[in-house]
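Handout, section 4.2: multi-component inputs.
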Amino acid sequence: MAEKKEQFEPKIIGFLCNWCTASAADLAGTTRAQYPPNMHPIRVMCSGTVDPMYVLKALLSGADSVMIGGCHPGDCHYVSGNYKARRKIAMLKQIFKSLGLDENRIWLRWISASEGPEFARFIRQITEETRKQGPSPMASDWTV
Amino acid sequence: MKRKIGVYICHCGSNIAGYLDVKKTTAYAATLPYVVVARDYQFMCSDPGQDMIKNDIKELGLNGVLVCSCSPTLHLRTFREACAEAGLNPHLCEMATIRELCSWVHSHERENATEKAMALIAAGVRRVLYRNPLETKWAPVTPNTLIVGAGIAGIQTALEIAGAGNKVYLVEKEPSIGGRMAQLGKTFPSLDSTSDMLIPQMEAVQANKNIELLTNSEITEVSGYIGNFKVTIKKKPRSVDEAKCNGCGECWAKCPVEVPSEFDRGMSKRKAIYIPFAKAIPKIPVIDRKTCKFFLDGSCHVCADVCPTKAIDFKQAEETVKAEIGACIVSTGYDTFDPTPITQLGYGKLENVVTSPEFERMLSPDGPTGGNIVLKNGTAPKAVAIAHCVGSRDQNYFQYCSRVCCMYSLKYSRLLKKLLGHDTNVYQMYIDMRCFGKGHEEFYKSASDEGVNFIRGKIGQVTNIPQSDEEKGKLIVVCEDTLLGTMIRVPVDMVVLSVAMKPRTDMEEVARTFLLGRSADGFFLERHPKLDPVGTMLDGVFAVGCCQGPKDISDTVAQATGAAARALALISKGKVEMEAATASVDEEVCAGCGYCEAICQYSAVEVDPKRKVAVVNEAVCKGCGACAATCPSKAMQLKNFGQKQLIDVIDEATKEYAGLAR
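Output:
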C-alpha cells in the first residue's frame, strides 16, 4: 500500500455489457482517450444479467459508486436484456430511496459499441460526481 | 481439483510496457493465490509467446490460464486455440484487458495504471478460478431454406440457393410472385424494360424443381434455432384447384364483378376472380371472397360454369404447411408513402396529381393506359412537374433518403421527352440530386442535356386557382427557387409526386414472428451496418432488399446474392457451433417458480411440470444470463459466469489498491 493521498479517490465498479459498453471501452482505448483509473471494469454478457445483488455487494464491499453499461433501447444483442436491466435498476433505486440510501451512486447508462469518446466522457463524469459525493457510507466496515 | 493457474503478461511492444510497470505487475501476479507461474513477454500472441503457455500447460500441469494483454475480441480465440493444442480445455483460458482498459487510457499516470493493472489481474485470476471445462457443441443443419417474400430479392436468393441443388421454400403473400418490381415500367439508368428482366427470372423460379413455391401464403409461426428452424405456413384458399387449373382465362373473362385493381394502383378494374397481372406466376386465378357474388349472396357461379377443367372449388379451405429449415431469408419489401396527409400537394383532391407508383403503372406497356402518359381527359400533358422527396428527408414523415427517387424522377423526365416529344416541358423540384450509383451521374447529365428544368426547392403548394390567363386550366406549382432566392409559379398539366419508400404496415408482425430488431427508421435492423449488412440479430435469419432499408434493384440483387452465399455457407458446413456458456440449473435448489421461464427471450427454459424444476434447452440458450439474474434462489447460473465467481471478482475489485487508497 502506498502512502495515502490527500484528495479522495473514489472507487467505482463498472459492469460492462460484452456487446456494447465493453466494446466502447475497447474503442476508447484504441483511440487513446484518457480517463481517470478509478473505474474497475467487469465484463458481463449482458446488462440484463447484472443482478441487483451484485450492485449491492459492490457498494457494501467498498465501491463508492457502481455503473452498469448496456446497449441503447432496441439494440440489445439479446433482444430485451437492457430493458430487464432498466427495470431491475429502477427497482433497486426505489428500494435505496425507501431505505434512506443514496440511489445516486448507481448509474445505468446506454453506451453503444461506437461510442468510445462517450464512454471516456462518462467515466470522467462519474468519477467527478462520485468525488463530489464523497466516500460512500455503505463502504465502511460491516461488523454486527 | 487443485487449481494451478498461469498468468501471462504481455508487453505488447511498448503499448503496455511503455505505460505501466510490467515487472512489478508480474511479481505481484506470482504472489496471488493459486498462481503457480507468472511470466511476462514481448508479444504473447506471437508463436514464442504461445509456445511459452503451451509448455507451461504440459510441464507444470496448469489447469487455468490468464493472459493479460489486449481485448478478448482480438485474441481470446488465439489463446484458447493454443490452450486446446496443449490439451487444456479452451474454456479454462481467460483474458484480462490491460491494454485497451488500462495502459492506453491512463498513459500519463504510470503508477495508477500499474495499480489498476494489478487489480485487473487479481480479478482475472478469480475469473479463471471459477471456470469449468465446457464442451463445444455442434448441431446439424437442415439443408432447406425458407424465403419470405418473392419480389426480386426473394426470387434472386431462391434461384441462387436452388441452383446449388438445395431445397427452397419460397413464400409469397400475394397471389403472384414478382413483388414491387413487377409494377415498374422501365429501369434506370439503362431504360430497359423491367418485364424483360423480371419475367424470365419468375419463369425460372416456376421451372426449378428445387423451389417449392407457396403463393397466397403467410408464415404464422417460427421456432427453433440456426440450422434447425421449424416453420408453419398458412396457405390461404384460392378457391381454385391449382392442380386442375390451366390458366385459360375463361373465368375472369366472364366474371361480372369489377373492382379496382390493387396491382394497377386502382387505375384499372379487375374481376372478383382474377390474376393480378397478365404475366403473373403462377398463372392461376384467385377468388376475392370479399367481392365475389357467390360468397356474398350465392347469386353467381358463372366461373364454375365456364371452367373447362372444373377447377373452381368454392369450398377450398385454408391449408397449413409445416417445414423444417436451416436458414431463413426475410425479403418482405416495402410500401410506398401515401401523400394524402400533405394536403398542400393536392393529392386526391386535384386531378392529374399522381404518385410515382401510379405514374410507373402508366409507363408500363401492360398497365392501365397501355404505356401512354395521359391526363384524366385522355390527352397528353404538355408540361409535367416532378416533386422529389415527398415524405422522404422530411422531419414530419421520414428522416431518411429513399435513395431511388432522384433516379426514377430523372427516368420519368427522359421517358416523358422520349414518349411525348422534346417540346414537353419537364420540371424537377428537388432538394439535392443524389445520383450516386454506377452510371447514375451520367444519366443525370443526359437528362440535363435534354433540356429538363431543374429547380432547387421543395414544392410549397399545388393549386388550380389561376392568377393569370396563362395559368388558366392548369395546375400551378408554387415553390421557392432557392438558387435564385425567389418564389416562382410554374403552370403544368400534371404533377408527379416521388413518394418515399416506407416500412411495410405488417413489419411489426413479421418482426415478432422472426424475433427481428428494427432500426430507428422502422426497417429491419442488420447485425452490423458495415461488416454484416445482411445478417440479423437472430443467427440463421437474414434480411435482404428493401425490408432492411430503401435500395434500388441492383443493390437489392447484390444483397440477395450475399444472403444466398451465407445460407449456402451454412448448408455446406453442415453443422453449427452452439453457445457453450449456457445457463444451467442446480436442480437441488430450484423450486420451480418459473420466473426464468417467463423472462427468457428465447423460450429456452421450461419448468418440468412433473419434477417442478426448470430445464434449460441448451441448444436454444444464448447465454445472456437474464434468468440467472432473476432466479430468487440462485439455482439458475450462467456457466462460467456464476454467482460465486462474480462475488469474488467484486471482492477483488473493491480491495484497496495502493494508488487509489483512501
